[in-house]
Amino acid sequence: EGGYRWNTLVRTPNGGMRIRSRFLVDATGQRGCLRRGHRERHGTPTLALFAYWKGTRMIGTHTRIEAAASCWYWGSPLPDNRFNATVFVDPCLVRSQWGCGLPSLYQRLIGVSQSLCGCAVGRRVTKVMACDATCQSTQPSVGIDWCKVGDASLFLDPISSQGVQVSIASSLRMIPVVNTLLQRAGSRDLAIAFYTDRLKSTLANHMMTCRQIYHEQWLHSRSDFWHRRTGCESIGNTFLRNRNDRLPSLRPDVQLRLAPHVTFCTTPVARGAFIE
């Protein structure tokens, strides 16, 4: 509605109710419910094929992760005695095997897994489902009366295992942003810039980390699946090769000067309950 107000119809067990608010936060996951901003993919597309099982021989409560030549696996027990078995594949593999059907491809991949093959002795209690597991971001993810947090703003490649941590961090970061947007009209641009810049920085660090993970696995498998996700045509890429190189040691008497292309600028930061 006008005047920066939201009119939200909510369904509850006792019927519908209407909530009017000055600000709306979208924390509904990868798909998101707020139709603001555009979704952009980053990196090589990856599909997650998954289903839930019962009666498996998966003993223990730990998560299982396994790398294969043309995919990688993730499996975890759930509190209701079900087991989630997921395989991450290239969409090209799904298209090439489409005639066999998604369940057949999934069953075959799970069957050759060393860590998830115990599912074969159990029974699959759901259909085989597929979802996009490619890193994605929403731009913009914040406005003067709305904000996206968690996977709704930035969905990370699952191989990094950082999704929950980054979602919590974005939620905490949102607090002074919303405070500023609601209480300091003159600093709204600062708040929006702060939130946007932090998301971009998180995305850049994430992409760098994932490419290193894929590169390290490629050194073992030498398969196209891992190579395509390193983000470079040549595995001898200077960045990947030199990322962990040490900086040269400097003596106390060495004189330093500022490079001519370096500039200083004012940037928004969180200070207390506001962005300044």
Number of helices: 6
Strand content: 25-35%
* Class computed from helices, strands and strand pairing: alpha+beta
Q: Please describe the biggest sheet, giving its number of strands, its sense, and whether it closes into a barrel.
A: 6 strands, antiparallel
- Relative helix content: 25-40%
In terms of per-residue confidence, which ranges show pLDDT below 50 for 5 or more consecutive residues? 233-241
Q: Return the string of H and E elements.
A: EEEEEEEEHHEEEEEEHHHHEE
Overall mean pLDDT stands at: 90
Q: How far is the N terminus from the C terminus? A: 29 Å
What does this structure look like?
- The protein is α+β, with helices and mostly antiparallel strands.
- Helices cover about 30% and strands about 25% of the residues.
- The strands form five sheets. Strands 5, 6, 7, 8, 9 and 10 form a six-stranded antiparallel beta sheet that branches.
- Helix 3 packs antiparallel against helix 4 (about 190-220).
- The longest helix has about 35 residues, at about 190-220.
- The chain is flat, with a radius of gyration of 23 Å.
Keywords:
alpha+beta; single chain; 276 residues; six-stranded antiparallel beta sheet; 25% strand; flat
What's the helix and strand layout?
Elements: E1 6-12, E2 15-21, E3 24-26, E4 38-42, E5 47-54, E6 64-67, E7 71-77, E8 83-89, H1 91-96, H2 102-111, E9 123-124, E10 129-132, E11 135-139, E12 142-143, E13 146-148, E14 154-155, H3 163-183, H4 188-221, H5 224-228, H6 238-242, E15 270-271, E16 274-275
Parallel strand pairs: 3-13
Antiparallel strand pairs: 1-2, 4-11, 5-8, 5-9, 5-10, 6-7, 7-8, 11-14, 12-13, 15-16
Helix pairs in contact: 3-4
